[in-house]
Amino acid sequence: MKADLLIHNVRIATMERGRYGLINRGAIAISGSHITWVGEVAALPRVDARKTIPGRGQLVTPGLIDCHTHLVYGGNRIDEFEQRMGGATYEEIAERGGGILSTVRSTRRGSPEALAAQARPRMRALLSEGVTTVEIKTGYGLELEAEVRMLEAMAMLAEDHPVDIFRTFLAAHAIPPEYRKRPDEYVDLIIDTMLPHVAELPPELRPDAVDAYCEEIAFSIKQTRRIFEAAREHGFPLKIHAEQLSNLGGTALAARMGALSAAHLEYLDALDIPAMMRAGTVAVLLPCALYYLRETRRPPVDLLRRRAVPMAVATDANPGTSPCFSLLTAMNMACVLLGLTPEEALAGVTIHAARALGRADRIGSIETGKQADLVLWDVDTPAELSYYLGYVPKHSVVRRGVALTP
Ligand code: DI6
Ligand code: FE
User: Fold this and answer.
1) The pLDDT of residue 232
2) Predicted pLDDT at 95
3) Atom number in ligand 1 closest to CA 241
4) How far is the CA of 173 from the centre of ligand 2 (A)?
5) What is the pLDDT of residue 97?
6) Predicted structure pTM score
7) Cβ contacts of residue 138 below 8 Å, gap of 6+?
8) Is the CB of 250 under 6 A from ligand 1?
9) Is the CB of 20 under 6 A from ligand 1?
10) Residue 289: CB within 6 Å of ligand 1?
11) What pLDDT is stored for residue 94 in this prediction?
């Protein structure tokens, strides 16, 4: 057997089917950007490898996937953090014109270059923890040109970082100030102008999915359904933010329309779950947002687990409710605050995160035929990845079959 890269003598958490799937003394052969063989060293056929990484028993996991972020935005909201810690509520700040709309003002002012430049340190923070795929949403432009500039900033980030970026179009994030009194007209704008335009963008800019924030303070069920119907006609996979502050039924709607994922879910109801099961819709848990908002309500993890709904874990990195750029922190919080096991947390940032992006056929587990995105960790057991807070175990990354120099 020929290989471009052979990784030898490592422990492998394959993460197939959401389990560790440990191979205690394993090897991985890679040709080009893909895995061509994985298994016990004892069963390894004779390999003629151009390059070998002689392992020392490190733990190899799939490259981590942050499947829900708002990494591209202008400005920051540190002043609001200070106000909130002094007692102001998120709603009060929003009423004063702060909140999402404050980020919209600073994002609209930014060129794609400026937006990419501001996002770079945040991207580096994510990548420094073994992340190899990042989803990023638009939604701080809320007008066609500014939304497209956000997509352009994402394309720039993809060019100068070793990462696969999944672009999600979230024009339905908030009602822009100029449409405050006529929200349905903004929905018309999304449907009649924005979606047809972004659907025709070249492949490096075209969104990979369409998302909507279905909530009392954002888009109603009816508005969300209209946007999703139009998005589907353009062939976009669907994602939703729902059941964060109340139960409007957005998750069930999205699942019935075949959505890839539904995020937040603190107010998810048992009755919403069968639709998710039928559609294979992934529940995306965002513990850092819940932490920052001091939300005491928890997503119904036990129910989701019992009904075998795949659970992903993500940072929700954004300037308002989750200025967190550490996926390992999100894993820890998923365990401590939400009750996931470390195995579920790791599945939540690998195979189930891949599924939330519709890419489980390509990434998220260590299997023959998958993209060779791997992290070699100096840890004893996979649970260790969820164990620390503010400490990143030493590791190295192989992305698309290429060993990255740290
Ligand atoms: N989910 C969130 O938690 C936020 N948006 C969303 O869709 C908050 C975004 C912000 O405050 O900037
Ligand atoms: Fe979000």
Assistant:
1) 98
2) 83
3) 7
4) 9
5) 85
6) 0.98
7) 72, 147, 150, 151, 167, 168, 169, 170, 171, 173, 207
8) no
9) no
10) yes
11) 85
Indicate the length of the chain as a whole number: 406
Q: In what order do the strands lie in the sheet with 209-214?
A: 64-66, 131-137, 164-172, 209-214, 238-242, 261-264, 282-285, 311-313
- Ligand 1 closest atom vs CA 319: 12
The domains located in the chain, with CATH, are 2-62+366-403 (2.30.40.10), 64-356 (3.20.20.140)
**Contact status, residue 168 vs residue 135, Cβ threshold 8 Å:** yes
Among 96, 142, 318, 324, say which to mutate for ligand 1: greatest number of ligand atoms within 8 Å of CB.
318
pLDDT recorded at residue 90: 84
Q: Is the CB of 213 under 6 A from ligand 1?
A: yes
Considering every ligand atom shown, identify the ligand nearest to the alpha carbon of residue 218 and give its number: 1
Q: Which residues of the chain have pLDDT under 70?
A: 406
Nearest CA to ligand 1 atom 3: 321
How much is the pLDDT for 406? 66
> What is the tens place of the pLDDT at every residue in 11-32?
999 999 999 999 999 999 999 9
pLDDT of 213-241, one tens digit each?
999 999 999 999 999 999 999 999 999 99
Q: Which amino acid is located at 92 in the chain?
A: E
**Residue 181, burial from CB neighbour count under 10 angstroms (0-12, 13-18, 19+):** exposed
Task: Work out which ligand 1 atom sits closest to the CA atom of 73.
Answer: 12
Angle at 239 between CA 238 and CA 242, to 5 degrees: 135
Residue nearest to atom 1 of ligand 1 (CA): 241
- Which pair of structure tokens corresponds to residue 68? 């829900």
Q: Which long-range contacts (CB under 8 A, 24 or more apart) does 218-223 make?
A: 218/172, 218/173, 218/174, 218/175, 219/172, 219/175, 219/183, 219/187, 220/248, 221/248, 221/249, 221/250, 221/253, 223/172, 223/183, 223/184, 223/187
